[in-house]
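Sanity check

After download, print the first record. It should look like this:
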Amino acid sequence: MSTEEQVRDLGRIWAAAEERGDTGVLAGLAADGFRLVGPLGFVLDRGQWLARYDSGDLVTEKLSWTDVAVRDFGATAIAIGVHEQIARHRGNPVNGRFRATHVLVRAGDGWQLAGIHLSPIGGEPR
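Expected structure tokens:
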């Protein structure tokens, strides 16, 4: 299986685990030094990222990961796509459509997420 296929498969598993709030699966997908940069610039480490579901603060009803382009750099891969979610954080809607960059690192025969960066999707550059 190619790097692109592996990364896309991992993305499907990740999105489904987010929808289920499955911290066991998410923990297995995230490297020890994982970091998430949220769409408002906040940073979560691996433990904080997993705790979003353990605490019940975050409920993700739907998450899609589409228009994904993967670049393979050997021990690292970069996947850029569109992350669209319907979710609530502490009861407040946090729905959105974001440009998402996933940084992945080789882990044995597969890949793990080292980072995710979300940015609001604005207009076309001028």
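If your output differs, re-run the checksum step. Summary of this record's structure: The longest helix spans residues 3-20.
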